[in-house]
């Protein structure tokens, strides 16, 4: 690279977090969640992020405490977050409080339309602190969230 050429800025990091049971995508209730495996979803997210000039860091955990640590790290780094908290969406005030620390966009994603499912899934503790919510678009919801973040950063 010549001295007159500027070094391109590093790609903006986006943290994509998947909560409990999402590591079992493609095997767990495919009639609801589809046939895409978590590994295939990660590849789709990473490819779409790269196409958008972003760097996706995808993490999945069945542990609430580990998800809290991931959110805290994103808050400290100022990184946007795409979060599918799974069942913790409806139960975890601690995760909601951690998400409230985020200053960059937080997009809550659900593969299914949680509002057409069991009553207990209709309430989200995360939505109140999220920039936006995407539900019912299948795994395409993650890609829509990436496109939003690419336009917002």
- Report on the biggest sheet: 5 strands, parallel
In total, how many beta strands? 5
CATH superfamily: Dehydroquinase, class II
Number of helices: 5
Known CATH architecture: 3-Layer(aba) Sandwich
Order of helices and strands: EHHEHEHEEH
- Structural class designation: alpha/beta
Tell me the Rg in angstroms: 16 Å
Principal-axis shape equals globular
Low-confidence stretches: none
Q: Percent helix among the residues?
A: 25-40%
Distance between the termini: 27 Å
* Average pLDDT over all residues: 93
Strand content: 15-25%
The CATH topology is Rossmann fold
Order of strands across the biggest sheet?
A: 2-1-3-4-5
In the CATH scheme, the class would be: Alpha Beta
Number of individual domains: 1
Notes on the protein architecture:
The mean pLDDT is 93. α2 packs parallel to α5 and α3 runs parallel beside α4. Helix content is 35%, strand content 18%. α4 links the parallel β3 and β4. The radius of gyration is 16 Å and the shape is globular. It is of the alpha/beta class. It has a single domain, classed as 3-Layer(aba) Sandwich (Rossmann fold). It has five helices and five strands. Strands 2-1-3-4-5 form a five-stranded parallel β-sheet, with helices on both faces.
